Amino acid sequence: MVTRTAFGVLPLQRTEISEAVRILKRAYDAGITLYDTARSYTDSEEKIGRALSDVRASIVIATKTGARTRSALLADLETSLRMLRTDYVDILQLHTPPAVPDPEDPDSSYSGLVEAQQKGMARFIGFTNHSLERARAAADSGLYDVIQYPLCSLSNDEDLAVIEQCGAADIGLLAMKPLSGGLLTNIRAAFAFLRRYENVVPLWGAQTMGELEELIALDADPPRLDAGMLDEIEQDRRDLAGRFCRGCGYCLPCPADIPIPMAARMGLLLRRMPFKQFLSEEWRESMRRIEDCQDCGHCRERCPYELDIPALLKQMLEDYERFTEAHA
Asked: Which domains are present in the chain?
């Protein structure tokens, strides 16, 4: 059993290490027990290890590996354990694989999960994905203890059906991106929407103490979904209809040093967040890097939502230039 409010540690990559440690310790002191990270989240595992190794027995650590073979998975896990300062993880997950691996293949990543579990290096095993088809196939397989999938107040009925599917199969369900990569700005409404589902554990990201304190307060006194919140959720669905960047960062690094997760959402960020922060000379220079895009295909190939990122970036640059001219 874990707390219904969990900590998605990805954003702490952007937080200086001593402050990240302070934030993680505060989360633990507030009662949060589940911390989700990944081998690919730069120094996030190290930060968890520094902050919480002394309370290891009282927390649940979930990490992920992008390895596609048994041997690569076990090598990744050894690194994760060293960074986390522990000899086991509670949940070891496959990180957005392009297909559900063959459980009969002795060299598959799934075989690596099973071996890690048999050796006591992982208590439970999981599967994460941005593809509804793959997430549901993994749940149907009966091979995984935990499924991680994007769920938020923008989710449609097909996405939300994963909740009932996992509940019926007694599979743990972690909801990634409960704020849709930061584009949902009414946190109370987003929190209340997912709180209705008792078998869903949202992974709330926080990179500042203020953000964490807001989540702690919501967890202590959970808001109920009311008519006003539903109206705002419907407006969000209208505003964010269609295909847009969720800011997951899988497209990085960019050879042209374009900050893709922010630049590819710039048109939305300008309308949905305090915009003056994006009108600085630093941001102007960052957005102009889009002109250096060589369409190498790296970001397009890695995008879990199959977006045409180079085309999207060009559109965002046009939007940005129009906006900055209008607010000069």
From this structure: 6-236 (3.20.20.100), 260-326 (no CATH)
Cis geometry, peptide bond prior to residue 253 (ω within 30 degrees of 0): yes
SS3 at position 82? helix
pLDDT digits (tens, 9 = 90+) for 303-327: 988 899 999 999 999 999 999 999 9
pTM of the model: 0.88
CA angle 71, 77, 82 (to 5 degrees): 135
Task: With CA atoms as reference, report the closest residue to 54 among 95, 88, 76, 85.
Answer: 85
Which residue in 250, 274, 181, 172 sits closest to 162, CA to CA?
172
Mean of pLDDT values over 173-180: 96
For residues 77 and 37, what is the distance between their CA atoms, to the nearest angstrom?
12
DSSP assignment of 122-175: EEEEEEE-S-HHHHHHHHHHT--SEEEEE-STT--HHHHHHHHHHHHTT-EEEE
Name the phi and psi angles at 147, rounded to 5.
Answer: -115, 135
107, 67 contact by CB (below 8 A): no
